[in-house]
Structure formats: structure tokens, C-alpha cells
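Below is how a single chain appears once it has passed through the pipeline. First comes the sequence as given, then the structure the pipeline wrote out for it. We keep one example in the README because the format questions we get most often are answered faster by looking than by reading.
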Amino acid sequence: MLAVPKLRHNRNVVFACHHHVVWCVKYRCPILKDGIAACLKKLLHVGCHKRHATIIELDVMPDHVHLLVSIDPQFGIHRLIKYLKGATSHTLRHQFKVCRTRVNTLWTNSYFVATVGGAPLKIVKEYIENQKHV
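Resulting structure:
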């Protein structure tokens, strides 16, 4: 795995945005095993590289995926996940029959995302409140 990046930048934004993302196989079917899981990991690495996202951690469970990723806020986490789910579904359904026959669509429409890292909310709130007195 890649080292956790401190700060990244594009032409006009310096950022350190880390997201924990989880999405599931439709009906939580446990089909992400063996060769499918290995192929999915490779596809996710390639897809993130194409979208200039950095995978910090990745784990594929039989019925869901955990991804810790750093992404440019101007590109957006929603666009990244939409791309990754679409591209991986297309490829896996083409390469593995079980991905076509066990479920009518590979991924659920939804996903979980949470930002991680940085200061706790209480500290940030206090910092903002104290700016009036500086």
C-alpha cells in the first residue's frame, strides 16, 4: 500500500482529503472471493490511478468493499465512486459469469462515505469560535 499523503495539490488547491468508503454487492451476495476479489483490487487500483486518487487502504470482503482513499476535492468523492462502481461492474460482469447470474446488477445504488483524519470537530469548532477574539 502507498504511504499516507500529508498534503497534495493541483493547480489551485492544496488538500488533504481522506475518505472511508464502503459499498455492497446487490442483495449482499457473497461473490467477491478468490479470483474475483483479486481482479476487483487490481481494477480499483487502476481506476484510482486514472482519476488521480491515492488508495491508502483497500479490503474486499465477500459481500462488500472498504476503501480508504485520498481524492482531489474539486473532482469529488461522488464522481470517483460512481466511476469505480461502474467500471468494475462492467469488467467483472464481463469476465466472471457468477457476477451476471447471481445478481441482476453487481453493486447496490448506495454507498457509505465518511471523511477521516484531521482535528476532532470540537477542536475545529473552538478554533472557528475563537477567531473573533484574535
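The chain has four helices and six strands.

See the next section for the split statistics.
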